[in-house]
């Protein structure tokens, strides 16, 4: 495993009340002893979770099988805390519930960890340390079929827009980047509107720990677009799991324009559209 050598695992973590680490779908057996066991962690708002978020895990699974010596033991969605205060961020309670519905609906290896959602904002480097602690220290890592103990490597799963922010000044500290990309590593899924090479150029020193996954079927669904559709009373069915669409309808979510700072959201969506070179309006009518 690559290690920066300068950083140590965070020793103490603040847990939300009544918290227990979900590991019901986490495999603790490494089927191929020649492989390195990994766990994928996707950090984000998930407001709401869409099929694109779930596709990221499937794309990563195919990529890992075809191009690496890793074996995936499980995947986690880790919704960010309400204190992240991003426009359109619905309460953690609803975001976690929707992620749980989506994960239940999906394959058998996805789970939702509410650890960061239900407490103060935690930086991504700390979130990955938390997973490392729970999986390797508390659960004792994985075992081969012969009973040999193995350290599980935690890896960040993200879209190329997120990796793009890693070269923007002031968003991530150098020591956090070194911790995330040096100690753990990252699988990056190409996202329409973000140049993947440009996004990773400035991260070249950690190149060996960054895996780029191209999108063979272009899909630019975003949570921002889903929120815009909902506010305009448009259908979002088949963009996200039915159980999540039903949950949104039942609870009347994403109807309130002011709470969601729609102004900022439209700006953000236009930026992304402009970045992708597309001049199309998402919806022909203005809000
Ligand atoms: N269409 C997509 N293609 C590739 N990656 C994506 C896509 N949508 C989301 N992601 C990735 O999923 C992770 C979680 O993202 P997040 O919840 O912030 O979703 P989002 O759709 O970007 O939300 P918002 O529109 O509210 O900014 C991020 O790493 C993001 O890059
Ligand atoms: N310094 C950091 O640790 C840092 C900076 C920016 C975003 N993030 C994380 O990235 C995820 C997605 O953020 P955005 O939706 O703002 O792109 C969130 O989970 C957030 O916590 C972490």
TrEMBL record:
<dbReference type="GO" id="GO:0004515">
    <property type="term" value="F:nicotinate-nucleotide adenylyltransferase activity"/>
</dbReference>
<dbReference type="InterPro" id="IPR014729">
    <property type="entry name" value="Rossmann-like_a/b/a_fold"/>
</dbReference>
<dbReference type="GO" id="GO:0009435">
    <property type="term" value="P:NAD+ biosynthetic process"/>
</dbReference>
<dbReference type="InterPro" id="IPR045094">
    <property type="entry name" value="NMNAT_euk"/>
</dbReference>
<dbReference type="Pfam" id="PF01467">
    <property type="entry name" value="CTP_transf_like"/>
</dbReference>
<dbReference type="GO" id="GO:0000309">
    <property type="term" value="F:nicotinamide-nucleotide adenylyltransferase activity"/>
</dbReference>
<dbReference type="InterPro" id="IPR051182">
    <property type="entry name" value="Euk_NMN_adenylyltrnsfrase"/>
</dbReference>
<keyword id="KW-0067">ATP-binding</keyword>
<keyword id="KW-0547">Nucleotide-binding</keyword>
<keyword id="KW-0662">Pyridine nucleotide biosynthesis</keyword>
<feature type="region of interest" description="Disordered">
    <location>
        <begin position="258"/>
        <end position="287"/>
    </location>
</feature>
<keyword id="KW-0597">Phosphoprotein</keyword>
<dbReference type="InterPro" id="IPR005248">
    <property type="entry name" value="NadD/NMNAT"/>
</dbReference>
<feature type="domain" description="Cytidyltransferase-like">
    <location>
        <begin position="41"/>
        <end position="227"/>
    </location>
</feature>
<keyword id="KW-0539">Nucleus</keyword>
<keyword id="KW-0808">Transferase</keyword>
<dbReference type="GO" id="GO:0005634">
    <property type="term" value="C:nucleus"/>
</dbReference>
<dbReference type="InterPro" id="IPR004821">
    <property type="entry name" value="Cyt_trans-like"/>
</dbReference>
<feature type="compositionally biased region" description="Basic and acidic residues">
    <location>
        <begin position="263"/>
        <end position="287"/>
    </location>
</feature>
<comment type="similarity">
    <text>Belongs to the eukaryotic NMN adenylyltransferase family.</text>
</comment>
<dbReference type="GO" id="GO:0005524">
    <property type="term" value="F:ATP binding"/>
</dbReference>
<comment type="pathway">
    <text>Cofactor biosynthesis; NAD(+) biosynthesis; deamido-NAD(+) from nicotinate D-ribonucleotide: step 1/1.</text>
</comment>
<comment type="pathway">
    <text>Cofactor biosynthesis; NAD(+) biosynthesis; NAD(+) from nicotinamide D-ribonucleotide: step 1/1.</text>
</comment>
<protein>
    <recommendedName>
        <fullName>Nicotinamide-nucleotide adenylyltransferase</fullName>
        <ecNumber>2.7.7.1</ecNumber>
        <ecNumber>2.7.7.18</ecNumber>
    </recommendedName>
</protein>
<keyword id="KW-0548">Nucleotidyltransferase</keyword>
<keyword id="KW-0520">NAD</keyword>
